[in-house]
Amino acid sequence: MPTTEAAAPPAGVHGAPATGHETPAPGTLAGVRRIELPRPLFATIAGHVVRKLTGHYIDGEVAERKAFGLLLGRLDGTTLRVAAVLPLLANMRRDPGIAGDMDELVDQYAIPSETPNEQRGWIAHPRELMDAEDFCDDHDLAVVGNYHTHRVPWPQDPRRDTCTRLDRLLAEESGQWVFIVSATDLHRITVRAFYEGRNDREAEIVLRPATPHAIAIDRKSDR
């Protein structure tokens, strides 16, 4: 489905109305049908992805070819307005104290890929989650979703722009939107959004012009 925008359709974002059988109440994240994403924040996500996948890392950032981040925003009926993007730096995925549960899920449910199973997935650092909550409290926002990359094309899914079964299991009952960033072609970064990782619950993403309230949070770290 072509991207929509207030003025002209840009490249980069796909979307379609949610098609799940439920009828969630307006005013809840489950009831969102439209997501407004300021163009500078889309550029922040795309830039984060390209930088990580081309091996350019900042201080305190895990050196691996994947990008994960949080989206903060506000609800307006069935419209979700993204107001800030928080690229995450630390991945606890390989922490021996907590990696076991993720290893088990990946081994059981992930489709085989060129990325080793022990490197698949992201576990956010508690400090960064607290930073996001503090930022939300200061700016009257809420954490509304997260984004992550799919970079390896599969024969049956060359764009990799939808959620996998593993994505869905990890997002189940989270009450948040999963933004899949297709990075199989770094010259054609695209984003789609699915409630709790369900491909039958997609929302239309609309790129908006820059607004004074769009915030790309600086991720310089002393970690």
UniProtKB/TrEMBL annotation:
Residues 1-27 are annotated as: Disordered. SUPFAM superfamilies: JAB1/MPN domain. Gene3D superfamilies: Cytidine Deaminase, domain 2 (3.40.140.10). It comes from the Bacteria. Residues 1-20 have a biased composition (Low complexity). This is JAB domain-containing protein.
